[in-house]
What we know:
This protein is mainly alpha-helical. The chain is 51% helix and 7% strand. Strand 4 (165-168) and strand 5 form a beta hairpin. It has helices at residues 2-20, 25-29, 39-65, 91-104, 107-115, 135-154, 176-198; strands at 71-73, 82-83, 121-122, 165-168, 172-175. It has one domain (2-215): dinb family like domain (Four Helix Bundle (Hemerythrin (Met), subunit A), Up-down Bundle). A 3-stranded mixed β-sheet has the order 1-4-5. The protein has a two-stranded antiparallel sheet with strand order 2-3. The protein starts with a helix and ends in a 32-residue tail after the last helix.
Amino acid sequence: MLKAHLERFRAIRARTLALVQGLSQAQMDAAPAPGTWSIGEVVDHLILSVEIIRRDIAELIELTKAGQPPLLYRSAAEFNITPFFLPKCLLPWLEVPFNFLNMVVPDRVREVFVRYRLIPARAADTATPRRGRSVAELHDGLRSSLEELEALLAANPNLDYDTMMHQHPLLGTQNVPHLLYIMGLHEERHQAHMSDLLTDPRFPTAGREVQDPRLSAPAAGPAQATRARA
């Protein structure tokens, strides 16, 4: 399962790189409206998200090697992703109800909300993108974050990743292979976001022949509004 989900994530990341191939700095930085993310910010959010998950997987690996239970709980305070309509200050009060809901909500339902932008969400503070990063930094970050994840898993090939569990009040409880699957769904969500930005009439096209990426790549889901969401 781990190998299959990692291969799937490689293919998804390759499509992300294809979506931004040839974009200028001005195009990376262009946002359709105040308060919305640019393509560069979406890319940086994806880079940060993978780095967060890689660090958590590394911690689970160390717990396993130390003979401790490989369970990592990330509280809402530590990783404060939240629905857009919900103030982040309320998260500590809702952690117990959210954890209870995770016991009854099917994985497939949660996966739909991760994959599609049905409920707008605020990114966790640690995954909030940095504005104005250069094109080179963004391209390098997309490649290096994947390479570092691959290197971590390759350096620990004989561990039982199915028993390493990651728990979060909103994201539920996942083992490492399924965590990679969720990462892929999250990236596909933002690929749809980037596709919408690329085809927005306000997007600057000078310097690149912009075509709808959905004409030459697998469908990324229904078009959604381009308002910045996690």
